[in-house]
Amino acid sequence: QAQLVESGGGLVQPGGSLRLSCAASGSIFSINAMGWYRQAPGKERELVAHLTRGGSTNYADSVKGRFTISRDNAKNTVYLQMNSLKPEDTAVYYCNRLSPPFFVWGQGTQVTVSS
User: Fold this and answer.
1) What is the mean pLDDT of the chain?
2) Coil, strand, or helix at residue 74?
3) Which of 6, 14, 70, 83 has the greatest number of beta carbons closer than 10 A?
4) Alpha helix (H) ranges present in the chain?
5) Dihedral sign (CA 53, 55, 66, 72)
6) Phi, psi of 57 (to 5 degrees)
7) C-alpha angle 101/74/112, rounded to 5°?
8) How large is the C-alpha radius of gyration of the chain?
9) C-alpha to C-alpha distance for 41 and 29, rounded to whole angstroms
10) What string of DSSP letters covers 80-101?
11) How buried is 41 (Cβ within 10 angstroms: 0-12 exposed, 13-18 middle, 19+ buried)?
């Protein structure tokens, strides 16, 4: 069972950027489609970006054109570059497989967009 550790979150002003990282305990990203999810207070967890085994990407409409998902198989890491951040992007961000069965969820990384 892979372990996932998210990092890179923080407090940023509207319009700012952050790069999130998701490190895995094993070489899982080359054999699994992976996604970045987020959960805002009082809301359901939602998928915001995913990356297939073949390298195709897809994004939720709310982040399209602002977020970019990528991976480095040699480092067992998936990234989420977030630009032009908005207050509504505030949430805890997680990575995991695109579809069930999911790995054990990590602790996530908090992103807060506020002036």
Assistant:
1) 94
2) helix
3) 6
4) none
5) positive
6) -125, 155
7) 65
8) 13
9) 29
10) EEE-S--GGG-EEEEEEESSSS
11) exposed
